Amino acid sequence: MGRHQSPQEIARTRYVIAESVLEGQVDLSGYPFRHLAVIAYPGSRTGIRLAKVTGLLAAVEVLTQWGWVLVNVTTNDSPEAFVAFLRRG
Predict the structure, then answer these.
(1) Does 57 map to a domain?
(2) Residue 2 falls inside a structural domain
């Protein structure tokens, strides 16, 4: 299960957790920046266990409905997480 990320936390860290996006626990309505990172950690669960890339891209799909555009996806030099970088369209 993902965790709720407050708008203040998201603005401070500039990232959201993919699982939290998929579970509807993210509010970006007051997000003040143009760019945002989405992080998918191993072992995330949203009803069923999702592969990191699958969960990440599913979260990106949700965010594109809110006007975000995918810029890049990387492992950020770490096998522990995949990161997608988005910009507000």
Answers:
(1) yes
(2) no
The order of strands in the sheet holding 15-17 is 15-17, 35-40, 82-88, 68-74
Element (H, E) at 36: strand 35-40
Per residue in 2-57, pLDDT tens? 677 899 999 999 999 999 999 999 999 899 999 999 998 766 554 444 577 888 99
DSSP string, 56-71: HHHHHHHHHTTTEEEE
- For 13, the domain range is 7-88
Give the number of domains in the chain.
1
Q: Give per-residue pLDDT as tens, 53-74.
A: 888 999 999 999 999 999 999 8
| Residue 1 domain flag | no
- State pTM to two decimals: 0.84
Q: State how far the Cα of 6 lies from the Cα of 12, in Å rounded to an integer.
A: 10
